[in-house]
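Risk register update: the risk that structure generation would not scale has been downgraded. Supporting records follow, first protein first.
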Amino acid sequence: MIKDSDQQYGLISKLFHWLSALCIVGLFAAGWWMVELDYYSEWYRTAPHWHKSIGILLLIATIARIGWKLLTPSPKALAEHSAATVKISKLGHSVMYLLMVIIMLSGYLISTADGRGIEVFTWFEVPSLGELFENQEDIAGTIHEYLAYGLIGLAVLHALAALKHHFVDKDKTLSRMM
């Protein structure tokens, strides 16, 4: 099944979800590691290039994912979920999407503050808008860092909630996304 149904997520939603999860965890780990690189490290230029390239591709995928979500209604909440559980779940998902977009846009602002575009592997270049405000690189960098920590924290809570639903509540929350 490609599209979502009332009871199950479809293949496209599952691919968006798991690809995003993999990229977010990988980008967070790489970002954490990259801040320790010095000019003489063989990864000093390569790691940021990969980080930026994957980040831009994830931004494109996230925009497509949001579009897909608007066009394809998600499965209905499980009957055994309380109204509070449904509200918290929707709020958590909305905050994760918002954090993802802000983190990726702030990454763009960090990388393009000097007027250079972002080369996405060797496929295409995202042009720079230049320095839009004073101290752009530092302000965007702070936002990028702290919101990345927030997103990872929220992702851990998201995963723990899915595991709780699966192993404690024994409902179909997790299996609908597998």
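Supporting record for the second protein:
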Amino acid sequence: MKGPVRVHDRHAFDTIIDARSPAEFARDHIPGAVNCPVLDDDERRIVGTLYKQVGAFEARRVGGAMVAANLARHLRESLADKPANWKPMVYCWRGGLRSGSMTTWLRMVGWDAQQLAGGYKSWRRHVIDTLEEKTPTLSLVVVCGATGSAKTRVLHALAAQGHQTLDLEMLACHKGSLLGALPGVPQPSQVAFETAIASVLDKADPLRPLYVEGESARIGQLNVPVPLVEHMRGSPCVEVEATLPARLDFLLRDYAYLGDRPEWLANQLAPLKPLHGGTTIASWQAMARTGNLPVLFAELATRHYDPAYGRSQRNLFRAWAQRRIVETNDLSAPGIEALARQIASSGG
């Protein structure tokens, strides 16, 4: 490839190699990249300390030995099966010594390895540019509904039926509500969340509807990117208006795992005390601890979530008054599939 390798060239390579440390890779990386660190987390810390306390020469002398050992190990192990015509792209933080060292070694072996100009920082700029420039071009349709309306499942059904969707809750690893944390599943970093969103937007066809759930600006500990929030606020809405029995039945299925976490569930209710008073919260916490989820969910829906729902939607979405309403009393799997078909029948 002639000239510097840029982010948009990445699809021309067989493998994308992230030469940064495991901690850097875990925080965020180019989708599909594999981590072959030239310095692990401890080694990177040691080299950085030497650079600050002793000087660049000593840091490079010690670091060079570590890099050589790690590159030799990668050649013996993870890269041992690569054919002669293998073509990898390598990047580090800013396209400097770490990815340069690996690229040199791989080229010495005979592979057509190339270094990503600007490294991860150029990828991060691509993500920010995508969110800022691609978002306003999208034909968003915002799927709204009161708590328990199976909005996320409707998105899944729309995707299964061949429609474009952006599932922010899946990308955030959080259901977006007070009880939305997923057991044993940490949320990604903010930058990884933005990378995941940008990867969906990169592939989206602006001429076709892109269905997204009507989220607030924050999902768990993560912020929905401002350009996306702003575009959602002005986009057309479709509201799933499900009966309360259907919603409660769905909530009991969708949050059944909370029955195995009674103390966690009780603790999650504590922040609601200023809104509902100590007596009510104590009663709800007792329901959580005894596993009385049917009554607890009914109380939460009718006394906490529903009263603020209509007001919040009017404040969040400028096209709320013109929304399309789709009614249902069936949030079973077949009912959700029918909902998705009905929503898509008029493009939202």
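The longest helix spans residues 293-316. On this basis the risk owner (M.S.) recommends closing the item.
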